[in-house]
What does this fold into?
Amino acid sequence: MLASFDTMRERLYFETLRRAALLALLALAASACGAVYPEVQTPVRQPPPGREVMPEPPPDLLYIAFDRATIPKQTRDGRKWDSVGGDAPDPFAKLIVDGEEVIVTPIEANTLHPKWPDQKRANYKINPSSKVVVELWDSNPINNSPICRMSVSQIHDSASSEPEEILCNSGARIELRVERARPVMGLGMFYELQSQAVRVTRVVEVSPAARAGLAAGVMIRKIQGKRVDTLDSAQAKSLINANASSGLQLTIEFEDGSQRDVELREEAMYPQADEGVDLPFR
It folds into this structure.
């Protein structure tokens, strides 16, 4: 009985060791597969003042922002706008395209003259046939109150260096800035500096990177003729940044294993609001 008990205890001991080793291997494999590398954006800058940039923006891209609004002191039926925190409203504005909220400004508290300086200013893709509506609201703790709702017909025809003034039935006025898409200079590429590899993670739709055929998942194998697996992450990033304006020579590999040499050069690109580019627009 004692021998049998000792044998069982020994088997249990070794089984415990085996399970612990297996769990350690699984954890190591999961760690390797789930490695997270920081995403890097190629540099973006404003075009030089007075210099014509090429290429021109696509016709369906517009730069849109709310410049300001002017709101009457009272509602149309003579009531104060706000019963909490002051007599003036706490306005915010919306741009709605085909029923979808495309722009929603921050709330600017207790003012009749909002300018929403912290709103996101960006380019937006809008089909010329889209139904566009501008709304102005007073934010309230329970229910927001509408101040204005106006349709904007043929918004592409409104593109100008001067804001379009929208007159509301409530007496409010909204100045909506609609311009042709604003450019920035850059390559339009996001990438991961992996261990001995550079992987493209995202590409701006209207950019030099997209025009060169780069897309998410493409691997960069050479930079300026140097194999990526011989470079550390700092060297790879430095080569990309240093040659962006003069000509970045890349050898890229697609998911099917085919390779191609491409050259990228910093040009005008037109990032959209949802493409995650840090924009210098003001």
Summary: The longest helix spans residues 2-33. The mean pLDDT is 88. DSSP finds three helices and 18 strands in the chain. The two ends are 85 Å apart (CA to CA).
